[in-house]
Structures are given as structure tokens and as C-alpha cells.
Amino acid sequence: MIAELQEFAQRCFSGPNMVASVLLICVCLYWLMTIVGGLGLDFDFDFDMDGDVSEGLTGLGFVSLRWLNLADVPLMIWLTVFGVSLWLLTLTLDFMMPSGHDSLGRSFLIVLRNGAITVFLTKVLTQPLKGMTRVREPNPVEDLIDKEGVANTEISTRHGQLRYELDGAPLLLNARTETGSLGKGELARIIDFDPHTRVYLVAKVEKEVPQ
């Protein structure tokens, strides 16, 4: 049993298998530190790599990274799927098609081949995770269109503020009218939104506000 484990360990860290094994160890260490950190234990070092990194990469215009789901899946989750898949694929192919580990050039080509296959495999495996960790913005614009609120101040074509009632604190929105004006306390409906000025376009509702 011990001899078999030693042989397996030797295979894991020989030739092209070593790259996949080292990556898998790094991923496991990251999640181990994350779990330990969640238990409230402090260390003298700080290791932080999250979805913001992937957002920064895709923001640079790397369309291929977006296609690989790096824009919708946190980077460390993506790397975890990639690392585990690469390790399993590399070891499986090494057992099925032993190629020898004596040539550095051959090992390098095997790593490239397995890496390319794993990239597409990771794309498929992370597809169901797209958007699952994305934080939805509270009170998105599309949810406010056609909603009614009360003019908190006079609303004209140049200035104004609308109060939209929520379950908690009311939402105060910068508002304008297309023509005319609304007096304070009048009921208005949100009809459009200007993303450049962050101003809502409102129109008067012809009914009285309950006192």
C-alpha cells in the first residue's frame, strides 16, 4: 500500500504531471487559508484574490476571457475548476497513454496540449455558474420605470426631486419634466432615465395624492 502511494506521488510530480499537481496544491492552499480565516484565526500575511481581478481583466477588452466566463465567475472559482480538471486530465492521459518524462520539450508540449483542452473543459463546467455570484443592484432603473412617486420639491425641466416610497426609507431621485412643472406634493410617474446625467424623466399623474 505504501509502495503504491509512493509510486503515485512520484508519478504526480514527474514530467508534465508536476505542473498540474503544483497548481492543484496552490488552489487547495488558497481554500484552506480561506476556511481558516473564516474561523477567525489570524495570520501575518494577507492573500486576496477574488472576482474583482477577473472583472479587471475583462475590462481591458480581452473578449476571449469574457467568452471563458471570467467576467461572470469569480477568478478563484474558475481557477479551482481549471486546476482540478487539469490535474485529473493530466493524470488520466498519463496512465492511458504513457509518453515518458525524460524529454523536457515533450513534457512542455504535453502541458500545452492538456492546458488547451482544460480551458475549454473549464468553460463548459463553469457555464452553469454564470451570474450566480453577481450582486444585483438594489432598485435598478428598469424596476422604477412606470412607477409613481410624489414630488419632494417642485419639478421642472431644469431641477427637481421625486420621492419614491419603499418598504424602508423613501428613495429620493433627481427628476425633470419634459415640459411644464409639477408642484411639491403632486403625483408623478417615472417615464424614462438619462444614464449620463443620472436624472429621471417624470410626467404628472392626474389624480390627487391621498392625505
Which helices and strands appear, and what pairs or packs with what?
Elements: H1 2-12, H2 17-38, H3 51-59, H4 63-67, H5 75-96, H6 104-126, H7 141-144, E1 148-151, E2 161-164, E3 171-177, E4 187-194, E5 199-204
Parallel strand pairs: 3-5
Antiparallel strand pairs: 1-2, 1-4, 2-3, 4-5
Structure, explained:
With 211 residues, the protein is an alpha+beta fold. It has 2 domains: 2-129, no CATH class; 141-204, OB fold (Dihydrolipoamide Acetyltransferase, E2P) (Beta Barrel). The chain is 45% helix and 14% strand. The protein has helices at residues 2-12, 17-38, 51-59, 63-67, 75-96, 104-126, 141-144; strands at 148-151, 161-164, 171-177, 187-194, 199-204. It has a 5-stranded mixed barrel. α2 (17-38) packs antiparallel against α5 (75-96) and α5 (75-96) crosses α6. Residues 41-61 have low confidence and may be disordered.
Could you give a short description of this structure?
This protein is an alpha+beta fold and 211 residues long. The chain has helices spanning 2-12, 17-38, 51-59, 63-67, 75-96, 104-126, 141-144, and strands spanning 148-151, 161-164, 171-177, 187-194, 199-204. A hairpin with a 6-residue loop joins strand 2 and strand 3 (171-177).
